[in-house]
Design brief:
mainly alpha, 22 helices
Amino acid sequence: MTKTLLKKQFMELSRFYFTDSKTGKSRSKGKAAGIIVLLIFLLVIIIGLVGAAAMSVGSAMLEAGLDWLYFAMFSLTAILLGVLGSVFNTYHSLYMAKDNEMLLSMPIPPGKILFSRMIGVAAASLLYSSLVWLPAMAVYWILKPPSVSGVIFPVILLFALVLFVAVLTCLFGWIVAKATVKLKRKKIVAVIIALILMGAYFFISFRLSNILEYITVNTAAIGDFIRSWGYPLYQFGQAATGKVVPLIISLVIIGGVFALTYFIMSRSFLKITTTNTGTVKTVYKEKGYVRKSVGRALLAKEAKRFAGSTTYMLNSGLGIILIPMATVFLCIKSSSFMTLINELPEDGSWGSMVSVIIAVIICILCSMNCTSAPSVSMEGNGIWILQSMPVDPWDVLKAKVRLHVVINMVPAVICTAVLGIVFRESVLSIILMELAVMCFITGGGEFGLMMNLIKPNLNWNNESTAVKQSLSVLIAMLSGFVCAVIIGVAAFPAKSVMDMNVYFGIIIAVLAAVIMLLARWLKRRGTVIFSNL
C-alpha cells in the first residue's frame, strides 16, 4: 500500500511535465522534451551562479584547512532554499489535498497517507536543495581531488539534507494547521507567516555579498563558533569530507528527527484533515441583503476565491506587497538614484528617462500579479457551476480580468503618482505614466486570461498545481516582464529623436490597440472555449 501511495505522489509531482492539463492525456514526446529542456536551461543558470559563489568562498576555506566549514555553510544554504521552495505548498499538500477524504474513506491507515505525503514533500524539495549542494560538491572536487568516500558521502548527505528539509517544511505545515484550524481568517494568517519568511529570504539575498565577504574574512572565528555551538552541523561538515563516524552520527540525528516528526504529526493528522475548518462560531444577526449587479456579484466571487487561497495569493499577488516596498525604497534613495542617472554618459540626456524607468519598474512588479492567468484553472471540477448559471460567459470572463485590474491598479496608480512627485516629473508626464501603467495592467490581465483559456488545468488535486505548475501562468508572467523590458529598452534610441511624453503617447496607443484586440478575442473566441470546457 505504501508503495502505491508513493507512486501516486510522484505521479502528481511529474504530472505537469508529461500530462496535458487541458485534456488529461499524455503530452507528446516533443512537448514534454521542450518543457524539460527549458527547465534544465534555467537550472543550469542557477547552478552556475551558485558555483561561482562557491568558488570564491571555497578557495579561502580550503586553504585554511576548514573543508568541513565549507560543506556546513552550503548545507545551511541548501536547507534554506529547500525550505523556502517547498514551504508554501506543504500545508495544502499535507492537509488540504482534494483526495484526502477519498483516501481516508479507504482501508488505509492515516499514518501511511501522511508518510507518503511527507516523502512527496521531500521529493519536491530535492530540486531546490540540489541547486546549492551539487555545485558546491563539484567546486570542492575541483579545488581538492577527493577520496572515494569524499565522492560517495556528499551524495548520501544530499538525501539526508532533503529529509531534514522535509522535516522543517512539514513542521511548518503542521504548526499552521494546528494554529489555524479554529481561526476564521486562517488564509490571511498563513499568508502573513509566508511573507515573513519571504522577507527574511530577500533580506539575506540582498546582503549576500556582504555575508560572503564577512565569512571569507572571519573564517576561523566562524568555524570555532560552529564547532562549539553547532555540533550536528560540525559533524555534517566532517561527514561530507569523507569521514565515516560523522556520517553515521549525521544520519542517525536526521533519521531520528524525521521519525520523531512523523510520530508527532501522525497523532493529529486524522483530526486536522477531518475537522470542519469553517469552525468559528458566530451569532446570526438579521440584516438586509444588498442586491448586486451580475458584474459586481461575479467580481465579488472572484475576490473571495483569491482571498480564500493562500497559494493563489502568494503566487499571483506578491507584487501587491513589492510595489509599495519598491516605492518606499526609491523614495528613500531618490537622491542616490538621480546621482547615478546624471553620471551616465551621453551629456546628461538620461535625466529625461526617469519617467520611463519608473513606469517600467512598476510594470515589471505588476507582471508578478497575474491573477487572471490561473483564474479559469482555479475553478477546477466545479467549473460547471458557472457554466450552468444564467449569466453570459462574457460577464464571467470580464470579472476575472477586473479582479486582476483592481488588485494591480490601486497600488500601481498610487505608487506611480508618488514616485512622479518625488522625482519632480511634470503633471503631464505623471498622467502619461499613469495611463501607460493602467494600459499595461489591463492588457496583462486579458493576455493572462487568454493563455489560461488556451491552456487550462481543471484536473488537479492541489491548488498549487493550478497556480504554480501552470504553463499559462509562466507564459503570462514572462510575457509581462519581457513587454515591460522592451518598453524600457526601446526608449533609449527614442529619447534622441522625440520627447518622452511623445514616446509615452505611442506606447499608450499601442497598448490600447492590443487591449481591444485581446478583448475582441475573449468576447468571440474565449467565451466559446469557456462554455465548452
